[in-house]
Amino acid sequence: MLDPRRSRQRMVQELKRSGITDEAVLQAMGTVPRHLFVEEALRVQAYEDIRLPIGYGQTISQPSTVALMTQRLEARPGMRVLEIGTGSGYQAAVLAVMGCRVYTVERLAELYHVTRNLLQQLSLRAIHMVRGDGTLGLPAAAPFERIIVTAGGPEIPHPLLEQLAEGGILLIPVGDRPRTQCLLRVRRRAGRFLTENLGPANFVDLVGSHGW
Ligand code: SAH
Question: Which residue of 96, 135, 159, 179 has the fewest CB atoms within a 10 Å radius of its CB?
Answer without folding.
Answer: 179
